[in-house]
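[step 3/7] fold_predict: job queued, chain A
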Amino acid sequence: MDTVFVMATTVPDDGTRGPGAQWVIAEPVIAAIAARAAVGVPGVARLEPGLTGLASQVARSVRQKINGLAPAPAEGVRITVDHSAVPSSLSASIDMVASGHDQAGAVGRAVQREVTRAVADATGLAPQAVVVSIMDIDLYGTGAW
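[step 4/7] structure written:
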């Protein structure tokens, strides 16, 4: 895989990384995993950030560029992780544009399955919910009629 994801860990006081170590995967990392999985589903024309998503994207991009990092694309994806639960619970919201050449409902279900699989494989946490919102249907952009 050509993408490197940075995760934070807390290490026990003695400096070892044994059973007491805890890995915390930040929401932007999970969002990038979910975004990559969603755009790979046939019938997804693109992810579509809303106004909230655009504001978050700009703030995250500026923060990452200041730190010298290349931002991973995560537009149109919102991740919520509840770390107070044991184990942590995770939910994802995907805003997308579907191709006009596929059934929107079938594409949405495929996105739910693929995002669930990709996030669980990468993080070990299976999302409790993956909500897919189809914001638009792209009738002409993905092929000729």
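[step 5/7] annotate
The longest strand covers residues 89-99.
The helical segments are 27-39, 51-66, 104-123.
exit 0
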